[in-house]
Amino acid sequence: MQSLPITPMTGDHIEPVLAIERSSFSRPWGRLAFFSELACAHSRNYVLSGAPLPDVNEQGIVAYTSMRVIIDEIHLLKIAVAPACRRLGIAYRFLRDSLNLTAHQDIKSAFLEVRSSNTAGLCLYRKLGFETIGNRPGYYPDSGEAAIIMKKTF
Ligand SMILES: CC(C)(COP(=O)(O)OP(=O)(O)OC[C@H]1O[C@@H](n2cnc3c(N)ncnc32)[C@H](O)[C@@H]1OP(=O)(O)O)[C@@H](O)C(=O)NCCC(=O)NCCS
Average per-residue pLDDT in the chain? Predict the structure, then answer.
């Protein structure tokens, strides 16, 4: 599949992003959380849109990601792909390219945490070069499951 355009997320993208968010997470972020990220100077938020894919929403938003830059580190907060568009290699290319867009020359590493049951997330991150560096048992209060901490070195 040809590359789809990545653009910075704006307030105009929030409705389709929220729809994907609600269909992707057991404890989804609300509107306010996304607007807080958009207002945060350290935050980088991107959306991916693509006409050739199943029509997921009016604006054609297929995926989104949020990350923060803290001195020489990237902290990945979110990535989700619309359910109808999964298993097509979209997250892999979108996250790889979003990290490259964000990782200026001083960035040394990227960190994230993921639920231990999230096989898709864990496999995606490993494929992108993240390695497990820690495990926080009972981190998620809704399920009691552990958070796996992962790091990628640039
Ligand atoms: C995780 C997620 C973003 C993957 O998106 P995707 O576009 O389907 O992923 P890709 O097609 O790019 O797959 C890349 C790799 O991820 C892994 N992967 C993706 N979906 C998988 C699944 N259901 N089971 C196992 N591995 C999976 C595979 O290693 C895959 O590589 P491969 O195709 O060579 O086997 C998507 O499932 C999603 O939005 N899930 C809900 C939100 C979420 O859990 N986000 C991550 C935590 S913040």
Answer: 93
Ligand 1 neighbour 127 (Cβ under 6 A): yes
Tokens linked to 104: 């200026």
DSSP reduced 3-state for 97: helix
Close Cβ partners of 141 (under 8 Å, ≥ 6 residues apart): none
Does this model's pTM top 0.85? My answer is yes
What does the alpha-carbon distance between residue 29 and residue 27 come to, in Å, rounded to a whole number?
7
Q: What does the alpha-carbon distance between residue 62 and residue 151 come to, in Å, rounded to a whole number?
A: 26
Mean pLDDT of 105-112: 94
Domains contained in the chain, CATH given:
6-153 (3.40.630.30)
89 lines ligand 1 (CB under 6 A): yes
Q: What share of the chain is helix, strand, coil (3-state, %, to 5)?
A: 30, 30, 40
